[in-house]
Design brief:
60% of the residues lie in helices and 8% in strands. It is mainly alpha-helical. The protein has a single domain, classed as Dbl Homology Domain, Chain A. A two-stranded antiparallel ribbon has the order 1-2. Helix 1 packs parallel to helix 5, helix 2 runs antiparallel to helix 4 and helix 4 packs antiparallel against helix 5. The mean pLDDT is 83. One of its GO terms (biological process) is cytoskeleton organization.
């Protein structure tokens, strides 16, 4: 009640939110690992089920708890925008809250970028496997721009041949 502000606190903590990007990048892989080990190992499955039954888990699955950090940054961003809409512009917290929103928005953007990069690498890996793993195209600097069916016209007799193109 003595200092009713949150902007200054968030401003100090917001730079640490960028590490969520790393979590988000590995999220799909982590979910797949949990699924795989739940199917493969009855012991793992039972341990996870026992933990999920604990009152502290609130009847939520491990996967649900794993999803929460992915949703955290967008939630902070949304709450801070709402806070700023309702905060009088002459408030002592206005500038700090505004700066916090800027930093959190950057972290959200960083997180979204990490998701897109991971999806791109995953798609490149799928293409690499489709091509028989002959040409190594899986590289963080490579980007899939477009893919799809095309018709190649033969120079001699103008017959059309179907091809699948990866750009």
């Amino acid at each position: 009640t003595t200092t009713p502000r949150i902007g200054d606190i968030l401003q100090k903590l917001a730079p640490f939110l960028k590490m969520y990007g790393e979590y988000v990048k590995n999220f799909d892989n982590a979910m797949e690992l949990v699924k795989t080990w739940t199917e493969r190992s009855p012991q793992f499955k039972y341990i996870v089920q026992d933990i999920q039954k604990e009152k502290v888990c609130g009847n939520l699955t491990l996967q649900h708890h794993m999803l929460e950090p992915v949703q955290r940054i967008p939630r902070y961003e949304m709450l801070l925008k709402d806070y700023l809409r309702k905060l009088p512009q002459d408030s002592l917290d206005w500038k700090d809250a505004e700066k916090s929103l800027e930093i959190i928005s950057t972290a959200a953007s960083h997180s979204n970028s990490a998701i897109r990069k991971m999806e791109n690498l995953k798609k490149l890996l799928e293409i690499y496997e489709m091509l028989g793993e002959e040409e190594d195209i899986v590289n963080p600097s490579n980007e899939l721009i477009k893919e799809g069916q095309i018709l190649k016209l033969a120079a001699r007799n103008t017959s059309a041949q179907e091809r699948y193109l990866f750009l």
